[in-house]
Amino acid sequence: MARPPGGLPTRARTRNALHEEPERLDSVTKPEVAKLQDYLRRKFANASIRIVAMKNGDSAEVFIGDESIGVISDDKEDGDDSFMFRMAILDIDLEDDA
């Protein structure tokens, strides 16, 4: 089979394309990260809040300074676009502040 300019034969390219991961509908984009970071900084009056998108693109990590405090993920349901912020608070974290 002849190799087209793309490298793989046409059938192989088609077969590989069928096995590629579909585009995620629940990804956190760079503009959303910027808006979320601005929102959280204003809401909590804390300019050291920083949001970093994760490599998989479906969520972003929230930091205060160098400490990770939680994860934000995009939640698209029924045409609505919202974000879920999850923050785990361990019992040992509560003891440190006592």
From TrEMBL:
<protein>
    <recommendedName>
        <fullName>DUF3126 family protein</fullName>
    </recommendedName>
</protein>
<feature type="compositionally biased region" description="Basic and acidic residues">
    <location>
        <begin position="17"/>
        <end position="29"/>
    </location>
</feature>
<dbReference type="InterPro" id="IPR021473">
    <property type="entry name" value="DUF3126"/>
</dbReference>
<feature type="region of interest" description="Disordered">
    <location>
        <begin position="1"/>
        <end position="29"/>
    </location>
</feature>
<dbReference type="Pfam" id="PF11324">
    <property type="entry name" value="DUF3126"/>
</dbReference>
